[in-house]
Amino acid sequence: MKTPLVLATVSALALTACTSPDTPTNNPNQRTGEGAAIGGLLGALAGVAVGDDAGSRRRGALIGGLVGAGVGAAVGYDLDKQAAELRRDFDNSGIQIINNGNTLTVRMPQDILFPTDSAAVSPTLQGDLRVLANSLQQYPNSVVQVVGHTDNTGAASYNQDLSVRRANAVASVLIGAGTPSSRVSVSGRGEDAPIASNLTPEGRAQNRRVDITIIPN
Question: What residue range is the signal peptide (predicted)?
């Protein structure tokens, strides 16, 4: 009868342990600590779930918590370190690096990546994509999702096709610079996943982007 209460408590703690990616922080190791906390909580949860009696559940929670904390801290540490290195090495300040706690998203606005109505990567951004490709080789235990996005100007079918072509163009640069193609997946969302209002020029500019999400294995 106590197990549902434990599950609910651990789940609630896990949800509150992680700082929102939008919250400014001066702590370069923020995600390391959060990864350890969340990994420990989820490891303890797994340990409780497999126990047959009170004693085995306690032992499972202890072991699972220790293992989970170690794994979570390692993942968080790598994300903190990789994010800091990318911020240091990118030349264009318009590139956003968003540490989500368990993934890292490199957001490149379309306006710096491509000429209008084009899927040809700007020569000035190819250098930053090569920096990212080098980082991906330094951190090989991850997969990469490259997703293109547009605003809602024009026909939805055209925007969908353009988002796919732009995502493929970015992925081609990453692969050409040494990222194994087996680690890279490509898709386009067209106008279906806005991050700002399409009712203003500023909002539409934010929605025109390519998101490169790094997912640790």
Answer: 1-19
As a whole number of angstroms, the distance between CA 67 and CA 90 comes to 35
Strand intervals (E) in the chain: 96-99, 104-109, 142-149, 184-188, 209-216
Say if CB 81 and CB 60 are below 8 A apart. no
Q: Torsion over CA of 40, 8, 22 and 203, rounded to 10 degrees?
A: 140
The helix/strand/coil state of 88 is helix
CA–CA distance, 18 with 123 (Å, rounded to integer): 37
Q: State pLDDT tens for residues 81-123.
A: 999 999 999 999 999 999 998 999 999 999 999 998 899 999 9
- Look up residue 87 and give its two tokens: 């911020």
Tokens of 174: 């990453």
> Model pTM?
0.70
Token representation of residue 103: 């993934």
Measured CA to CA, the distance from residue 47 to residue 42 in angstroms comes to 9
**Cβ(136)–Cβ(214) below 8 Å:** yes
The closest of 65, 93, 80, 82 to 33, measured between CA atoms, is: 80
The two tokens of residue 124 are 């000035």
Please say whether the beta carbons of 128 and 92 come within 8 A.
yes
Torsion of CA 165, 178, 89, 36, to 10 degrees: 100
Terminal C-alpha separation, the chain? 35
